[in-house]
Write a structure and sequence with these properties.
The protein is of the alpha+beta class. It has 4 helices and 14 strands. Helix content is 22%, strand content 32%. β5 and β6 form a beta hairpin. α2 packs antiparallel against α4. The longest helix has 19 residues. The N terminus is likely disordered.
């Protein structure tokens, strides 16, 4: 290295010392960075999913189109048939009726006739009530056992009195929840039990709101074995018993 010294100067009687300037003349040494060898478990090439066979893609598209063809009420989650006006005796009948086979992938056994407002309320209840209450038990919810839907009759099947909401296609009665493994949660045998009873009560509570009337085993003797759901509207809100 060369060290260059500057002279000194005197200003106002004080000596001014200029610090030495060091000039580096050596060529810097660049040392290579040592990296550890790659792990034998490292992925050397980014993985890409295998291209699906054309047959699988075609089958998936056909299922999608089938669901579009089968949708009712303008909702692909509600599958069935459009019936139009269903006539009935006297004041009975359904305007813009549909026959619903499934909602959100849950089959109705048998298919049920109702109006679209009731079908939409049923879908909401399945998604917010039945499926969350059952969770993964028995593989999950597979079907609903329907014991009444559209029927021209009076309330509680009395010979006289007011027409039931069933007479207008605004009601559905459900007696059991079928599971994927073939078992069933029934309102009649499960309501008073610790296990199924908790699930059924959760379903009953979830129906309050989507439906205007919700009746279960504690409402009266006529509903000991099923839930009654209808879309009647009251000024005071849903009637749930």
């Amino acid at each position: 290295m060369l060290v260059l010294w500057a002279g000194t100067a005197v200003a106002q009687g004080f000596p001014l010392v200029v610090p030495p300037v060091v000039v580096a003349t050596d060529t810097p040494v660049i040392r290579p960075v040592t990296r550890p060898p790659p792990s034998p478990y490292a992925v050397l090439v980014s993985l890409r999913p295998a291209v699906r066979p054309a047959s699988i893609e075609a089958a998936a598209e056909e299922r999608r189109l089938a669901r579009l063809r089968g949708q009712v009420c303008g909702d692909i989650a509600i599958q069935g048939d459009t019936l139009g006006r269903v006539e009935g005796a006297g004041a009975c009948g359904v305007s813009d009726a549909v026959r619903v086979r499934s909602v959100s992938g849950v089959a109705l056994r048998p298919a049920a006739t109702m109006d679209c407002r009731t079908a939409t309320a049923l879908k909401t209840w399945v998604n917010r009530g039945a499926i969350p209450a059952v969770r993964a038990e028995g593989g999950g919810v597979a079907s609903l056992r329907v014991v009444s839907h559209y029927a021209c009759r009076n309330r509680n099947n009395f010979a006289t009195g007011r027409l039931s909401e069933h007479a207008y296609g605004r009601a559905i009665d459900i007696a059991g929840i079928g599971l994927q493994d073939g078992s069933e949660i029934t309102v009649l045998s499960g309501w008073g039990t610790e296990d199924d009873g908790a699930q059924l009560r959760q379903m009953w509570r979830a129906a309050c709101g989507p439906f205007g009337t919700v009746l279960g085993p504690e409402a009266n003797r006529f509903h000991a074995d099923h839930f009654h759901f209808d879309t009647a509207r009251y000024r005071s809100g849903s009637y749930c018993r």
